[in-house]
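Anyone? Bumping this.
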Amino acid sequence: GAGVSQSPSNKVTEKGKDVELRCDPISGHTALYWYRQRLGQGLEFLIYFQGNSAPDKSGLPSDRFSAERTGESVSTLTIQRTQQEDSAVYLCASSLAEQETQYFGPGTRLLVL
Amino acid sequence: QKEVEQDPGPLSVPEGAIVSLNCTYSNSAFQYFMWYRQYSRKGPELLMYTYSSGNKEDGRFTAQVDKSSKYISLFIRDSQPSDSATYLCAMRGSGNTPLVFGKGTRLSVIA
C-alpha cells in the first residue's frame, strides 16, 4: 500500500514567516512521529502522537514549534516566526501501535532565508 | 556525551569489500536496535532490526548487538555500488517511544 507522504517536498521561506508542513501516515498506523534532520546531523525527535493520547512534545525546541493531528490521520507541523537555524529536513514517520518499526516519509526540505 | 555516537565518515570502499559500521551508546535502557539506510534526498528506510543482544543476518547484511559493551555493528558483505548511502543507527527503550539516532555514516562503494 501507500507509504508515508509529506508535503511540500521543498519549502523556501523568509525569516519571520510561518510555515506549515503536512504528513499523511500509512493508513491504520496509530503512532506518528516528527523528526528534524539538520545537515550532517542525525535525526532529532520533535513530537510523537499515539492514538487519542496526549502527544509527547518533549522534543520541540521552542514554543515557535507546534503540531496537530486529526484522529489517526493527517498531521501538520507548524513553525512560527521562522529563523535561519530552522533550516533542515523535517521527517515524519508512522508505526502500528505497540510495534517498533517506524516507516519514514521522504521529508520536507525547509530553507529559511 | 551524546546518547548515541556514530562516526560520520565518509567511508569509501571498493566494490566487493566487507563494510563494518558501528555505533556506541550510553543508555543501558535501550533494548531495540535498528539500522536505517538513507539515500540522498530520501527518507530513511529500515534495514535491520534486533532486540537485545545477539546477531541477525539478512542476505548480505549482519547486525550485531553487544549490550555489555553498549556497542552495535552492521556488516555488509560483498558491497555493491547500490549500497552507497548514509547508514543511521537508531535505538530505544521499551514501549512505543521515539528512536534516538546516531548522526549517520556516509558510505561510498566504488565500482
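Late reply, but here is one note on the structure posted above: Strands of chain A lie at 5-7, 10-13, 19-24, 31-37, 43-50, 65-69, 75-79, 88-95, 103-104, 108-112.
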